[in-house]
Structure formats: C-alpha cells, structure tokens
Amino acid sequence: MRDSATQKQSILVISDFPDVVQGDLATQLGLDGTDGVDAEIRTLRLGEMEGNASSDIFYAGYVKALTGARQQAGEWLLSVDQAWLVGFGLGGLVALWAAADNRDAPIRGVAVIGGTPNFEFLKGRHPYYDWPADHVKKTLLDWDVSYKVPRIGNRAVLLLHGDDDREIGTNWIEEFFLLATGVSRWPDNWEYHRIHGLGHQWDPRTPAVDEARQYLLTFRQKIFLDVT
Asked: Which has the closest alpha carbon to 70: 52, 95, 49, 88?
C-alpha cells in the first residue's frame, strides 16, 4: 500500500433524487481543482437510475434509484486508494450506506448536505402512498442507516443542513447526529453544522452556499491532508 501522501484523492459525488443541483456537481461544490488540489472525481446522478416511477414512486422511483447507486458506490470503492463520499439529499443517505456497507474500504470521510438518515420524510411528500402496508414498513426500516452507525467505524462524517430546507427538515439530521455521537466509538469524528439561509435547492449565488463550500473544503483538508 502506498503512503497516504502519494495516494490520489478520489471523490464520489452523489446527487439527490430528484436532482437539486444544476450543472456539474463538482464545480458547484468547489471541488473542481480550482483550489489547486488534484483529485479523481466521479458523479452519480440518482435521477438516471429510476424505473417507471409514474405508477410506483416509492419502489420504482426512490428505492430503485438508491439501490442502484449504493451498488455502484461499492464497486467504485474497490478501485480507489483513498475516498471521500459526498451526497446531496438522498445522495447523502447513499453515501452513509456505502460507508456502512463497505467497512474495509479506504473511505476517509463522508459528507452529507441536506440529507436524511431514512425515508420517513417521504410520508409527508407522498401522503397518497400505502405507507401502513407491512412491506413498506419493512423497507423503511431496512433503509434506516441509524441502526448501522457502528459499521461506519472511525470515518470522519460531516453533516450540513440548511435552516431554510423545505424538503427535508433539519430535525431529521439533527436527531441522527445526536444518535450517532451517542453510539459511535468515535463521536469526535462526527460534526454537524446548521447553515442559516441554506435551502434544499443548491443556489450558488447565495452566501449560504459559500458557507457550505467552506465547510466542505475544511473537511477535505482534515481528512486528506492532515494525515501524519
């Protein structure tokens, strides 16, 4: 294994479903090399993985898209030396699951922006769906990453959420942060920041996005460059 200083940084950026970022994901995050740091960046757009969601928004839409992305993330991790997973919205849920699924993968850190640890918020977004059904209940439980926090291990985790997010409320991720830091053996490796004015849609013209980018760049420095 090569020394960490000589290993190439590999970043996987996972979009939300539906997508909340227009244009190139890495550029919008400020990870496109303009900071002088070279990295291999791959993007996964969840919207490109859905099935026929018109008749079954939950299974053919959300579950199919996230299952496909979760599998691809695992395959990608087999080909890299040191990785950072970055996810928007439900892409953040995929990133957390990828870390839990792949305990031995060389993951330096996970960043979740406007994310959620489960599918529970969909009950309000799609109230017409048959949520009380037993098979749906099981799927909701199966996708709740809260129960898998110990499997994330000592990886650094950054949770960012805006107080103006109208799609996924801050309460979901704040409760997850409290749970995670309570059960993880490495609670100091978790950090959460609530960003004033940041909505679910990523608008690069706003100061809130600039603040989020700064947190991401600082986190990148921490996981890749502050290694002795």
From this structure: 95
Does residue 28 fall inside a structural domain? yes
**Residue 62 DSSP label:** I
Higher pLDDT, 9 or 194: 194
What torsion do the CA atoms of 66, 130, 134, 45 make, to the nearest 10 degrees?
0
CATH number at residue 95: 3.40.50.1820
Return the pLDDT at 27: 81
Nearest alpha-carbon partner for 155 in 69, 42, 77:
77
- How many structural domains does the chain have? 1
Note the Cα 195 to chain centre separation in Å: 16
Task: List the domain range (segments joined by +) for residue 121.
Answer: 9-223
Is a pLDDT exceeding 90 seen at residue 121? no
Report residue 116 CA to chain centroid gap.
Answer: 8
Domain contains 3: no
Find how far residue 166's CA is from the centre of its chain.
18
* Structural domain contains residue 228: no
Sole residue written with tokens 């099935």 = 51
Contact 44, 12 (CB under 8 A): yes
